[in-house]
Write a structure and sequence with these properties.
- The protein is built from 10 helices and 11 strands.
- With 284 residues, it is α/β, with parallel strands linked by helices.
- The chain folds into 2 domains: 86 residues, Rossmann fold (3-Layer(aba) Sandwich); 125 residues, Rossmann fold (3-Layer(aba) Sandwich).
- Strands 1-11-8-7-5-6 form a 6-stranded parallel beta sheet. Strands 3-2-4 form a 3-stranded parallel beta sheet, sandwiched between helices. The chain has a two-stranded antiparallel ribbon with strand order 9-10.
- A hairpin with a 4-residue loop joins strand 9 and strand 10.
- Helix 1 packs parallel to helix 10 and helix 2 packs across helix 10.
- The protein is globular and about 50 Å long.
- The mean pLDDT is 95.
């Protein structure tokens, strides 16, 4: 049976370090502050916002929720974002996406101050992931996958890693982060031929396709570590499911993250840590 790679202890360990650093900042008169910008009332965004606010409060980070109606005029939305860019009391900005259809998400993404982009959506932050430099911050979910591997002692060095998915949010950045950790990395996507033959070669398999329960026994072999980033609502079973068919994978692989309770539970801990780091940089 596989080791269940739960996210809670990983998040708790990250919280301890973040809380210490936040306290040190407060002693210097700096209150690390995150602004969460949301337009509309999407349930998934509200849930993530709620989790982020709770995590921030736990570690000493101030969370400021900036909520606008779904039909907010475009210029008002962009002006609000610019105000957050200019506010010296705000160290990090989290823009919840997707934005309502009438708002230009690409324009908003490019408008955000890179120094305050704590979830890796600006071009500068993504270029930092590509170059391995400390430009901005990588996407929190991609970072969470690496934090889980680190916590459970899975060193990517010299290992074969396969990433399913090529989005800028998870797939491509996590592949580059694995490469920087000296793994040999393959990216699979919708046009990849015979994905099971590739995934079976992996020592580390990270699935970030968002295709519910699309990975089964035929994709797996003994000894693998599986990080399931996908999360979908299974209406028939009335539960949250990942990309991986957990019941098939658990008897085969060496370690696997659960859904829920895996990567998602680490993401807000990484986010809070990024806010503290952004605040520290203002003192450098």
């Amino acid at each position: 049976m596989a080791q269940i790679l739960k996210g809670a202890p990983v998040a708790a360990a990250l919280d301890v370090e973040t809380e210490k650093r936040a306290a040190a900042l407060r002693e210097k008169g700096v209150v690390p502050t995150l602004a969460i910008l949301r337009a509309g009332e999407r349930e998934d965004e509200i849930a993530y916002e709620r989790g982020a606010v709770k995590r921030c409060a736990k570690v000493g980070v101030e969370a400021r929720c900036v909520t606008l109606p779904a039909d907010v005029p475009a210029e008002e939305f962009y002006r609000t974002l610019e105000d957050l860019n200019r506010d010296p009391q705000v160290h990090g900005i989290l823009m919840l996406c997707p934005l309502p259809a009438h708002l230009d998400q690409e324009k908003a993404r490019k408008m955000m101050a890179p120094a305050k982009d704590v979830d890796g959506c600006t071009d500068l932050a993504l270029s930092g992931v590509f170059t391995g430099s400390a430009l901005g911050f990588p996407p929190c979910t991609a970072s969470s996958a690496l934090e889980i591997l680190r916590y459970y002692g899975v060193d990517p060095k010299g290992k074969r890693a396969v990433v399913i998915g090529r989005s800028l949010v998870i797939g491509r950045p996590v592949a580059l982060m694995l490469l920087q950790a000296n793994a040999t990395v393959t990216i699979c996507h919708t046009k990849t031929v015979d994905i099971p033959s590739i995934t079976r070669q992996a020592d580390i398999l990270i699935s970030a396709s968002g295709a519910m329960e699309s990975i089964g026994a035929e994709h797996l072999r003994e000894g693998q570590t599986v990080i399931d980033v996908g999360i979908s609502w299974n209406e028939e079973k009335q539960k949250l499911c990942g990309d991986v068919r957990f019941e098939e994978a658990e008897p085969i692989v060496a370690g696997i993250t659960p859904v829920p309770g895996g990567v998602g539970s680490v993401t807000t801990a990484v986010l809070a840590g990024h806010v503290v780091q952004a605040a520290e940089r203002t003192l450098a």
